[in-house]
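Structure tokens please, single chain.
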Amino acid sequence: MSSLPPEIETHRQPDHEINPQFLTRWSPRSFTDQEVTDDVLFSLFEAARWAPSGGNMQPWRFIIARNPEDRASFHSFIVPGNREWCEKAPVLALVLSHKLTANGNPNTSHTFDAGTAWGYLALEADNQGLITHAMGGFDKQKARETLQVPEEYDLHAVIAIGYRGAVDALDPKFHEREVPSARVPLHQLLFEGAFGKTM
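Here you go.
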């Protein structure tokens, strides 16, 4: 494996050989206010567009905010603890997914598929030198009303997108958390033959 940044080497050790992109992608909170150009920004959503989905229904949708007025609308429904650090992010995106199939039946995989699309987006952001941080801490009903989202769509997360800032730019209470998170060992996640049956 190619050499990794020191902060990744310190906090993330894979149990098996993988592409470094899976280790270098994490969720910082410190953003600069540098704008993200259209060609770079849209490449993230282009990557998400190619995520797999059940029946190729591609149920995910994104609403983006990249000007002061739109970002202020997003800030109105993000919880204060997240808004403290995400207000500097130049782009915010709401991830949602359509709950129904073309014939009006429930799409039982829409949330699974939307999560996959977010994963593709996050990896491409890392490839482009950007950081992303997905937040579940927002008022979904207020977001639905503010952004006029129809009831047949579920709202999942708000993603902050931009360029990484200095740790010192954050409130000190966030400093200790501004490091790549580790993961539980693979043997705790992987069963063989039946649930709970470890390898």
